[in-house]
Amino acid sequence: MATVNELQPPYRVGYFVGSLSSASINRRLSKALLRLAPDELVFTEIEIGNLPLYNRDFDGAFPQVARDYKASIAAREALLFVTPEYNRSIPGALKNAIDWASRPYGENVIARKATAVIGASPGAIGTAIAQQQLRSVLSFLQAPQMNAPEAYIQLRPGLIDDDGTVTDEPTEAFLRGFMVSFFEYIERVLTVVPSPR
Fold first, then answer.
1. Which residues have CB under 8 Å from 153's CB, separation 6+?
2. pTM tops 0.85
């Protein structure tokens, strides 16, 4: 028998934009996702651009910027990763941010957070390889992942306006469905299901 979820909507979701560029198409995608998400989700961007490069020497005394960053993640029930693909991999800034979140050993603030991964690219594979690498990292960090629907967005010119308006109805419907599925997944993760006896 499942226990009742002690937390009730709205759920606090932190989102990461893997690109540091102000003109990032993935930032544009993130705006669209926030516009199309259910009202039961409240979003806060988790800033990654001001973090120094992670170094184990910091483990004994994290800089304030890293402590604030980790506290922001810890305060959320779920995490949404919106990532580009650089050289068939995760952007360095995003990997650096994940490393900060998981250290020092035993203080991983990503663990047990409901997560979803999505990304956009001008190319046809739509960040598929970067997403698979990111999923591998999240698995190691014990972060439950929404495995379906998968979302590899080829962002053609004009598909999403600068304010996040999606100009293509099937794409808008798909992205809305993705965010509804994420909301439902968060509810499932937050509901404790005891193991069968």
1. 29, 118, 119, 120, 121, 126, 127, 171, 175
2. yes
Residue 144, preceding peptide bond in cis (omega within 30° of 0):
no
Round to whole Å and give the CA distance between 45 and 42: 10
Torsion of CA 175, 187, 127, 170, to 10 degrees: -10
Beta strands in 32-131 (DSSP E): 41-45, 78-82, 114-121
Question: Among candidates 64, 62, 97, which has minimal Cα distance to 83?
Answer: 97
- Answer whether the bond into residue 63 is a cis peptide, omega within 30°: no
Tell me if 47 sits within 8 A of 69, measured CB to CB. Answer: yes
What are 140's two structure tokens?
């190691």
State pLDDT tens for residues 39-91: 999 999 999 999 999 999 999 899 999 999 999 999 999 999 999 999 999 99
